[in-house]
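During the reporting period the student researcher (J.K.) took over the structure-prediction task from the postdoctoral fellow and processed the backlog of single-chain submissions. One of the processed entries is reproduced below for the supervisory committee.
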Amino acid sequence: MKAHSSDTISLHRALLHPKTLMAFSLLFAAAAANFITGSWIQSYLPNEIVSPDLLLLHLPYVSEFHTIAELSLMTGLLLLLLALVISKRHLNSLPYFILNLATVYAARALLITITPLAQTSPIKEQPNFYGVTFSGMYPSGHIALSTIIFLLIRKYGSNVFATKVSGALVVIQAISLIFSHSHYGIDIVGE
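J.K. obtained the following structure tokens:
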């Protein structure tokens, strides 16, 4: 993507650039692949196995942590967007950022078929922020996305505070997913 002579471009121009639109298309395709794969697992294995997890057996279920996990993910996305907008010189890398997310979710669409286990949560109907509940949760899309956000902010952000906050959000995300019993322990630490 060509930048202006000052090496900065507007957010509007960055979002409408053909490379950015292609990256968004790939991200949408990867998200659709996760949805399709999750649906396939549910239809193919309607009575999945709930695997015992020693970590979850010894930690209490705290439903509020499910909301904290979702909020920390949204906060990380907002922080990344703010880092990009504030540091306009990196807006020309927007397609690269989106392509990173698309790659992780495309890989996840394939990997979740390896461990088609039942939801770990005591409340099976507990949906994610898409409003859908799936099995086959390795690797955790939440942790993958939070980690990618942290790495992008660390590499491209000029604010040390934003880097520390995004790193803390990964830890908050992991703790929240474990205490909400939304993922098996290996889904979190196995990445």
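The committee noted the following: The two ends are 31 Å apart (CA to CA).
J.K. will present the remaining backlog at the next meeting.
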